[in-house]
Write a structure and sequence with these properties.
- The protein is built from 28 helices and 4 strands.
- It is mainly α and 603 residues long.
- Among the domains are: 68 residues, no CATH class; 54 residues, no CATH class.
- A hairpin with a 2-residue loop joins strand 3 and strand 4.
- Helix 10 packs antiparallel against helix 12.
- The longest helix is centred in the C-terminal third of the chain and has 31 residues.
- It is globular, with a radius of gyration of 27 Å.
- It is a multi-pass membrane protein.
Length: 603
C-alpha cells in the first residue's frame, strides 16, 4: 500500500463518485475556423446540408438573406463574427468513470489485465453476461411500452378508480408497484411520469407532489423483487451465484411489507391535505380531454397515433410482447437452478422482438406511402404528429420538390428511416440504456483497480470488524447488526458512489472478499449473517434510489428530467426532505422483516 499508485487510484475513484453526484459544467472554446472546417467536412461528406440556423458557424456555405443578416452589423458591414465559440459541456456520471479509467491507464495505475477482468469478469461476476441480460430485457420492456400497453393500463386503472381521488391514489400506487416488479423501475419511470404529469394537469390536481412521489417510491421499491427488474439485482445474483427463485423468495416479503408500510406514510402523514389528494377527481373530463387533445403522455413516434386513451397503438404487438416477456421471465426462473447462462435465455427473445418490430414497420409502413397516409388521415392533429414540420416543409402539393431530392444526405436518410421505414425500431434504440452500460463497465473496472491495490480488502476488514463487534453481544445481535448496518451503509452510499449501480458493484466485491478471507482463515460466519448482509445490500441499493439525491439512481435523474420537461420542478431540498420519512420507514420495516425471515429460513 506504500505505492503511490494505490493512493492515486483511491483518490480518482472518490473524485469520480463525487463528480457523479455534483456534475461539473463548463464551456470549451472552439475556434471559429475549426467549427467551419467541421461543418464544411460534414457537408462535403454529405452527412448534412448547410442550414440557415447554422449561418454563424459556416456563413459562406448557405448565403440566403437570413444568413446574411446573421453576419452583418447594423451599419451593413459584413463580419465573420467572434473568432472563438464557447460550447457548453459537462463531466457527470456518464463521462466521469470513462475519464477515470483512461487516466488510470495513462498513469500506469491500471493494467490491461484489470480492464479485461472488469469487462469479462472475475470471482463469478461476469459483466458481459449481466449487460447482455440487462439490455435484452430493456429492449423488450421498451418495445412493449411503444405499443401503448402501459399507458392503456394506466387509463384503465383510472377508470376503475372512478371519481374517488383517494381510491384512485391507491389503485395507481398498486399499479405502479406491480408494473415495477415485472418490467423494472426505469420503464415505470418512462411511461408513468409523463402520464402523471398529464393526469394532474387535466384533473386540476396541483401540485402533483403526492402522485409523482408515490410513483417514484413504489417503482424503486418493487424493482427489488425480481433479479431482472434492476441491474443491481443482476450484479448480486451473479456475484453470489443466487438463482432467480432464491433471490425473489428472499426479497418479495420484505418488499411487500415495505410498500404496505410506506403507503400510510404517504397518504396519512406527508400528503393528507385535500389539495394533494382530493376526494373527487373528474375522470369524465380527463377522458374527454384526452380524446380531444390526442393524449400523448409519452412521445412515441413508432406506432400509429390513436385518438382515445383506451386504445392501444399496436394491439397485436402488445399481446405478442406481453406473452414473450412473460415466457422469458418464466424460463429465467425455471432454469436458474440449472446454472444456465442468463444471456442464452434473454438474448434470443430480444432478437425475436427486434425481428417482430422490423416486420411490423415493413408491413405497416412499407406498403403505404407517407403521402397516402397523410391524405387519408382526417385529424389535423394526427397529421402533425405523423409528419413533423421538418418532413413536410419541402412538400408542394403531393410532389417532392427538386431541392428535397438534392438533399440526399446521411441525416435525411436517417430521418426518412425514422419516419417512414423503421419508426418503431428507431424510436426504441435511443431509449436503450447504452450510457448506463458504459457506466457499469467502467465501474467494474474501477472496483477491480481498487481490488488490485488492496483497498477492497481494507473495506472488507472494516465490515468484518463491525460484524465482530455486533457478535460479542450474541448471534442475534450479529444478524441484526449485519442487516441494518448494510441497509444503512448501502442506502447512504447510493448518494455518494455514482448511483446505486456503483454502490452495488463496490459493496458486492467487499462482501465477496470478506467471505473469502473468513473461509481461508477458518472463521465461521453464520448463514443468517451471510444471507442477511447480501439481501440487505439488495434492498438497500433499490431503496436508496428514493433517499437524498437524484443521482442516487439513474431512475432519479430520469424522473427529474421528465418532470422538468413537463413543467414540474422538484428541488433537491424538496426531494431529500420528502424522501426522508419514506426511506427511514423502508429501512426499519424491511430490516425487521428480513431479520425475521432469515431466522425462520435458518430454523
Amino acid at each position: 500500500m506504500s505505492n503511490w499508485h494505490s493512493i492515486f487510484t483511491l483518490v480518482v475513484f472518490l473524485l469520480t463518485n463525487l463528480v457523479g453526484v455534483f456534475p461539473i459544467h463548463f464551456s470549451v472554446p472552439l475556434p471559429r475556423s475549426v467549427g467551419s472546417l467541421v461543418a464544411k467536412t460534414a457537408v462535403y461528406l454529405r452527412i448534412c446540408v448547410p442550414k440557415e440556423s447554422c449561418c454563424d458557424l459556416h456563413p459562406d456555405l448557405y448565403k440566403t438573406r437570413r444568413s446574411l443578416q446573421c453576419i452583418r452589423k447594423n451599419d451593413g458591414d459584413e463580419v465573420l463574427g467572434p473568432s472563438v465559440r464557447w460550447h457548453k459541456t459537462a463531466i457527470d456520471f456518464q463521462t466521469a468513470p470513462l475519464i477515470a479509467v483512461l487516466l488510470l491507464l495513462a498513469t500506469g495505475s491500471l493494467k490491461g489485465s484489470d480492464v479485461r477482468k472488469g469487462i469479462v469478469g472475475t470471482n463469478e461476476v461476469e459483466p458481459l453476461n449481466i449487460m447482455a441480460l440487462f439490455v435484452s430485457l430493456a429492449y423488450m420492456a421498451i418495445s412493449l411500452d411503444t405499443t401503448g400497453l402501459f399507458r392503456f393500463l394506466a387509463f384503465w386503472v383510472v377508470r376503475k378508480g372512478g371519481s374517488s381521488g383517494r381510491l384512485l391514489y391507491l389503485y395507481l400506487y398498486l399499479f405502479f408497484f406491480v408494473s415495477g416488479i415485472f418490467v423494472g423501475n426505469d420503464p415505470v419511470i418512462l411511461f408513468g411520469t409523463p402520464f402523471l404529469a398529464y393526469f394532474s394537469h387535466v384533473s386540476g390536481i396541483l401540485p402533483s407532489t403526492a402522485w409523482i412521489f408515490a410513483q417514484f417510491t413504489t417503482a424503486n421499491m418493487s424493482s427489488a423483487v425480481l433479479p431482472s427488474s434492476n441491474l443491481t439485482n443482476l450484479v448480486l445474483t451473479e456475484a453470489f451465484s443466487f438463482s432467480f427463485i432464491s433471490f425473489a423468495a428472499h426479497t418479495i416479503i420484505p418488499t411487500i411489507a415495505t410498500a404496505a408500510a410506506v403507503y400510510p406514510v404517504l397518504f396519512f402523514a406527508l400528503f393528507h391535505l385535500k389539495r394533494f389528494i382530493p376526494e373527487e377527481v373528474n375522470v369524465v373530463t380527463l377522458q374527454r380531454t384526452a380524446s380531444e387533445q390526442g393524449d400523448e403522455p409519452i412521445n412515441e413516434e413508432s406506432r400509429e397515433p390513436r385518438n382515445l386513451p383506451g386504445e392501444l397503438n399496436d394491439k397485436h404487438g402488445a399481446i405478442f410482447g406481453s406473452v414473450l416477456l412473460g415466457i422469458t421471465l418464466a424460463v429465467l426462473v425455471g432454469t436458474s437452478p440449472l446454472n444456465v447462462s442468463v444471456w442464452m435465455i434473454t438474448v434470443p427473445p430480444a432478437l425475436i422482438m427486434l425481428t417482430r418490430d422490423i416486420w411490423h414497420d415493413r408491413t405497416k409502413w412499407g406498403r403505404q406511402s407517407p403521402i397516402g397516409d397523410h391524405a387519408n388521415n382526417n385529424s389535423g392533429a394526427m397529421e402533425l404528429q405523423r409528419f413533423p414540420a421538418s418532413a413536410s416543409q419541402n412538400m408542394v402539393g403531393n410532389e417532392v420538390t427538386p431541392e428535397e431530392k438534392e438533399k440526399s444526405t446521411v441525416l435525411s436518410y436517417y430521418q426518412d428511416l425514422k419516419e417512414n421505414t423503421l419508426p418503431t425500431l428507431l424510436s426504441i434504440i435511443p431509449r436503450l440504456p447504452v450510457s448506463l452500460v458504459l457506466f457499469a463497465f467502467c465501474m467494474f473496472i474501477l472496483v477491480q483497480a481498487l481490488t488490485t491495490w488492496g483497498w477492497v480488502e481494507i473495506f472488507a476488514s472494516w465490515w468484518a470488524s463491525w460484524i465482530d463487534m455486533c457478535g460479542k453481544k450474541g448471534i442475534s445481535s450479529e444478524t441484526i447488526g449485519a442487516i441494518w448496518g448494510m441497509l444503512i451503509v448501502s442506502t447512504f452510499l447510493c448518494n455518494l458512489c455514482g448511483t446505486n449501480i456503483g454502490t452495488t458493484i463496490l459493496l458486492a466485491r467487499v462482501l465477496q472478499v470478506w467471505l473469502e478471507r473468513s473461509a481461508s482463515s477458518n472463521i465461521f460466519i453464520d448463514p443468517k449473517v451471510r444471507l442477511g448482509s447480501i439481501y440487505a445490500l439488495a434492498l438497500g441499493t433499490n431503496f436508496g434510489a428514493f433517499s437524498f439525491s437524484f443521482s442516487a439512481s439513474l431512475a432519479g435523474l430520469l424522473w427529474r428530467d421528465i418532470l422538468r420537461q413537463k413543467g414540474i420542478i422538484v428541488r433537491q431540498k424538496q426531494f431529500a426532505l420528502t424522501n426522508l420519512p419514506l426511506i427511514g420507514t423502508a429501512i426499519v420495516v424491511s430490516g425487521a422483516v428480513l431479520i425475521a425471515e432469515v431466522n425462520i429460513v435458518s430454523n
